[in-house]
């Protein structure tokens, strides 16, 4: 029993020590933070960054909202940014402490969810599209029909990623509707389309980087950066941009209202606004970032990767996911539940 | 003894079934070990022998920290759970039914009844209040939560062991003027030990496996191996993680073998 | 009327019982049960716009368990999606419990009938795989049963089948996974119960010309019953709320209750419904457990009376 108490006391002591100077607590998606970036930052500033992982925006939000978490920075997706702001969970950035804020690429400065980038610094962005193994199907893959009206070759072989918002959005756009619609007729069509397509899917799962590379799954709704990594292992894998419209996501770093290491946090935010450092972020998780001039520091295989560089004709088809509320959200949850019953 | 000659304890088909169970148990584990030495980048096919994943895992501080933290939490939580569960089992078995006995039984087993996600959300809200009030954000919360949900896992095997235990030995000890403590220490405890070991092991494994509650309770910098892996679920479990599992497995086998040999000598 | 001594004895027993249980109860009150009151409260509130709750009394979450307002024509209909999720969970958990018992009992028996010195060894052998993390074990099973996995490759090579068996991403895969994951939770309590079983009873049974089946049915099973009850609870209940296994092996196409509740607290943003579903599950399982305990106790009284 005594040994037990000693052990517990030691644990508590180590935890208290973690609050030492030169610390920064980053709350980020799992496997999304380049260790090289952190090592470089520590070398230049002496600040040690501790990363803690989460696996969904909702978990992260719930933890931050509950309080007492000890984090300084969080990396929410675009549609969650206004929620953090509205709930007062983040602080407005003091731009005088971010001399390189101007490095943010012009198209990423005035985004609707944070006009003028007063609250956030871009981390990475990507999109949800179609991954198809060319040996099985070589027709047009730039369409959501890959999973909603699969060609005969792909019936029973398509995976659909279990992201409620991505899937409902892709389907809504495929049917020509607006996102977050409260029109029951449209949502009924969305539901019917998904229910009709579901028997033609093999699974609703993550982990497609591997499964596409190993030919376990022949087609999937998935993220471009992940499929880029599959293609490096298996050249038969190709990525399509749905012409009916596809969701774009961007994750950005925000400074929490109850952050304890504010000065360190500003140093980090400014650090990742330098192109050579933003390129490190991209080089690790394989998504594009929103910092001008980072292209020349990127790994060679990323510069002209067809997954990362959206072809001109599809650029206008990308749509930012919105945070639906009220009736629209009720429709979405009900459809999703019915889809998985 | 029962093992000599016609063995009354043998029941037809039991031994083959048990053997099949052992094979089935070890097949996935052996695969995992094999893949941690796989030279190929993917876990899909075996492409030759390598130790690179072990080197990589060792170099990855995040993984190392998380593994260590998982082990520390599991040891402390399982120990606490076993001690309090033993006391509770002694209190609720082998005595005249008393007021509140069923209530205690139900309360102790409650963590089993609740899906993890529910406890997780409840604890998130509850602990967050305490964290804000006290400013303390250490591992204590995780240890408390783990110890609590480990209690029934320790309690049930101990209780099962106690329920059928022979009372005569203890009465004999008491007749020989052994104090209640001596009786407990030299008679009850040794008889109870297999149940306690089973309980501790179940509790330890349960703590080591927990994902959801840990995810919601952890503060900054408190990733455990499972939450680290869950964070990777969008990619795929990497070979590094298989390598860590192999190391942990090897460590377990070594420790258990040592423990096994030591206790056998004492007999 | 009870004598004074007897009354005193009962009082002492009650005091000791409570005293010994107090540490466990305090820990549970802090780390598990107390916080659940929050969940009960939440089930009577309104869902917040972005998750969490809004303070306002509502019974919507409770009605939402069985009925759903049809999102399109606003009529109140039976929520068949919810019912089929509940049914799948109960079915798979029951099958898992039965099957773990079917293979776990012979295994526990086998271990318990080894010579004293070997028992610890076999016991460790059972637990070792489970010192590996649940997520990793589940992924390992995934590697075995997937279309191009070990099992299919082997069967194809042997010529038993001519095209891969489609096991992965089915209810069957979830069943296999849960059986694998929860097996030791059945074997260990069974072992603890069989281990203290007096084998001389068997000899007595055979001396009285009982068949092996009769011995099993009439002597062994009644005596190891506490172990069976403990094992069944330990397997059934976690299986009912399983989250990781259905998500990985079921391919996420079909939810179980655990995933459904998680959906409400996560992407679904309906915390009150998640809370009311949780409380419902809790009430059902607690009621079942109470009946179980009463049943077990009554049985014992009859045996000894």
Automatic annotation (TrEMBL), chain A:
Signal sequence residues: 1-20
Subcellular location: Periplasm
GO MF entry, a single one: polyamine binding
Domain of life assignment: Bacteria
Gene Ontology cellular component list: periplasmic space
Signal as UniProt keyword: yes
Pfam families for this protein: SBP_bac_8
Amino-acid biosynthesis is among the record's keywords: no
Keywords: Periplasm, Signal, Transport
InterPro entries with a match to the protein in the record: SBP (IPR006059), Sperm_putr-bd (IPR001188)
A GO BP entry: polyamine transport
Family: Belongs to the bacterial solute-binding protein PotD/PotF family.
Entries under PANTHER family matching the protein: NORSPERMIDINE SENSOR, SPERMIDINE/PUTRESCINE-BINDING PERIPLASMIC PROTEIN
Purpose: Required for the activity of the bacterial periplasmic transport system of putrescine.
Protein name: Putrescine-binding periplasmic protein
UniProtKB/TrEMBL annotation, chain B:
Keyword presence, Repeat: no
Record-linked Gene3D superfamilies: MetI-like
Primary residence: membrane
Pfam families: BPD_transp_1 (PF00528)
Transmembrane segments: 12-37, 71-91, 103-127, 139-158, 186-208, 241-262
Any single GO BP term: transmembrane transport
Domain called ABC transmembrane type-1: residue spans: 67-260
Protein name: Spermidine/putrescine transport system permease protein PotC
Organism of provenance: Paragemmobacter straminiformis
UniProtKB/TrEMBL annotation, chain C:
Keywords from the named record: Cell membrane, Membrane, Transmembrane, Transmembrane helix, Transport
Annotated membrane topology: Multi-pass membrane protein
Transmembrane segment boundaries: 24-45, 92-113, 120-141, 172-194, 215-237, 273-293
Source superkingdom: Bacteria
Chief place where the protein resides: membrane
Residue span(s) of domain ABC transmembrane type-1: 86-292
GO terms for biological process, alphabetical: transmembrane transport
InterPro entries listed in its UniProt record: MetI-like (IPR000515), MetI-like_sf (IPR035906)
Claim: Glycosyltransferase is one of the keywords in the record: no
Pfam families tied to this protein: BPD_transp_1 (PF00528)
Compartmental location: Cell membrane
Keyword Amino-acid biosynthesis: no
GO cellular component, one term: plasma membrane
Family note: Belongs to the binding-protein-dependent transport system permease family. CysTW subfamily.
Entry protein name: ABC transporter permease
């Amino acid at each position: 029993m005594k040994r037990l108490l000693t052990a517990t006391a030691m644990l508590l002591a180590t935890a208290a020590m973690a609050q030492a100077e030169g610390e920064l607590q980053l709350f980020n998606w799992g496997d999304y933070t380049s260790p090289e970036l952190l090592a470089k930052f520590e070398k230049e500033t002496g600040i040690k960054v501790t990363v803690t992982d989460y696996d969904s925006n909702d978990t992260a939000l719930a933890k931050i909202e509950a309080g007492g978490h000890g984090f300084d920075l969080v990396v929410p997706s675009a549609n969650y940014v206004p929620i953090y702001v509205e709930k007062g969970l983040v602080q407005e950035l003091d731009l005088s402490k971010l001399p390189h804020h101007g490095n943010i690429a012009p198209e990423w400065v005035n985004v609707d969810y944070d006009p003028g980038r007063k609250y956030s610094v871009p981390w990475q962005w990507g999109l949800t599209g179609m991954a198809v193994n060319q040996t099985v199907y070589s027709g047009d893959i730039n369409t959501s029909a890959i999973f909603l009206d699969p060609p005969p070759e792909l019936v029973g072989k398509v995976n659909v990623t279990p992201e409620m918002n991505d899937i409902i959005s892709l389907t809504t756009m495929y049917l020509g509707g607006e996102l977050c619609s409260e029109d029951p007729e449209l949502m009924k069509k969305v539901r019917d389309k998904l229910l009709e397509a579901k028997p033609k899917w093999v699974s609703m799962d993550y982990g497609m980087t591997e499964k596409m590379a190993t030919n376990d799954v022949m087609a999937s709704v998935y993220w471009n950066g992940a499929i880029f990594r599959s293609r490096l292992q298996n050249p038969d894998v190709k990525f399509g941009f749905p012409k009916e419209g596809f969701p774009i996501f961007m994750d950005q770093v925000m400074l929490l209202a109850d952050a304890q290491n504010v000065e360190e946090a500003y140093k980090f935010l400014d650090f990742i606004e330098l192109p050579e450092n933003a390129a490190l972020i991209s080089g690790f998780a394989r998504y594009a970032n929103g910092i001008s001039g980072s292209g020349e520091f990127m790994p060679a295989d990323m510069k002209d990767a067809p997954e990362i560089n959206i072809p001109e004709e599809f650029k206008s088809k990308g749509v930012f996911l919105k945070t639906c509320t009220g009736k629209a959200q009720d429709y979405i949850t009900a459809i999703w539940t019915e889809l998985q019953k | 003894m029962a093992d000599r000659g016609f063995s009354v304890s043998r029941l037809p088909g039991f031994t083959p079934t048990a053997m099949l169970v052992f094979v089935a148990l070890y097949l996935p584990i052996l695969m995992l070990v094999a893949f941690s030495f796989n030279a190929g980048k993917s876990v899909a096919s075996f492409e030759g022998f390598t130790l690179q994943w072990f080197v990589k895992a060792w170099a990855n501080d995040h993984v190392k920290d998380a593994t260590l933290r998982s082990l520390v939490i599991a040891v402390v939580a399982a120990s606490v759970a076993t001690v309090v569960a033993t006391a509770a089992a002694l209190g609720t078995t082998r005595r005249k039914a008393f007021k509140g006995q069923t209530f205690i039984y139900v309360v102790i087993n409650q963590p089993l009844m609740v899906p993890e996600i529910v406890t997780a959300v409840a604890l998130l809200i509850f602990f967050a209040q305490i964290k804000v009030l006290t400013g303390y954000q250490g591992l204590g919360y995780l240890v408390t939560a783990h110890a609590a949900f480990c209690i029934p896992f320790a309690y049930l095997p101990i209780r099962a062991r106690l329920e059928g235990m022979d009372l005569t030995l203890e009465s004999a000890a008491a007749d020989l003027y052994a104090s209640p403590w001596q009786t407990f220490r030299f008679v009850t405890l040794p008889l109870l030990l297999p149940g306690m070991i089973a309980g501790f092991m179940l509790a330890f494994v349960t703590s080591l496996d927990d994902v959801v509650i840990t995810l919601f309770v952890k503060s900054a910098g408190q990733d455990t191996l499972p939450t680290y892996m869950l964070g990777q679920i969008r990619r795929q479990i990497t070979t590094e993680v298989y390598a860590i599992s192999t190391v942990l497995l090897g460590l377990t086998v070594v420790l258990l073998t040592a423990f096994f040999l030591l206790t056998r000598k004492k007999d | 009327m009870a004598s004074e001594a007897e009354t005193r004895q009962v009082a002492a027993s009650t005091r000791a019982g409570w005293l010994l249980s107090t540490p466990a109860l305090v820990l549970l009150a802090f780390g598990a049960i107390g916080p659940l009151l929050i969940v009960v409260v939440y089930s009577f509130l309104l869902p917040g716009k972005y998750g969490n709750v809004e303070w306002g009394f509502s019974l919507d979450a409770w009605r939402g368990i069985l009925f759903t307002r049809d999102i399109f024509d606003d009529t109140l209909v039976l929520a068949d999606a919810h019912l089929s999720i509940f049914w799948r969970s109960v079915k798979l958990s029951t099958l898992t419990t039965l099957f773990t018992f079917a293979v776990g009992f012979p295994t526990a028996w086998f271990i318990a009938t080894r010579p004293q010195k070997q028992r610890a060894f076999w016991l460790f052998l059972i637990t070792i795989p489970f010192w590996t993390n649940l997520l990793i074990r589940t992924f390992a099973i995934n590697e075995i049963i997937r279309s191009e996995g070990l099992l299919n490759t082997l069967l194809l090579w042997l010529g038993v089948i001519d095209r891969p068996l489609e096991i992965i991403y089915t209810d069957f895969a979830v069943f296999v996974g849960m059986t694998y994951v929860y097996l030791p939770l059945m074997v260990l309590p069974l072992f603890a119960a069989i281990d203290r079983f007096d084998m001389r009873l068997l000899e007595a049974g055979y001396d009285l010309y009982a068949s092996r089946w009769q011995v099993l049915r009439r002597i062994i099973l009644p005596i190891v019953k506490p172990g069976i009850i403990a094992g069944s609870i330990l397997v059934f209940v976690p299986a009912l709320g399983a989250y990781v296994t259905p998500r990985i092996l079921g391919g996420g196409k079909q939810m179980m209750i655990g995933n459904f509740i998680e959906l409400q607290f996560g992407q679904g943003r309906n915390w009150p419904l998640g809370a009311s579903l949780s409380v419902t599950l809790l009430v059902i399982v607690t009621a079942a457990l109470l009946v179980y305990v009463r049943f077990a106790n009554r049985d014992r009284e009859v045996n000894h009376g």
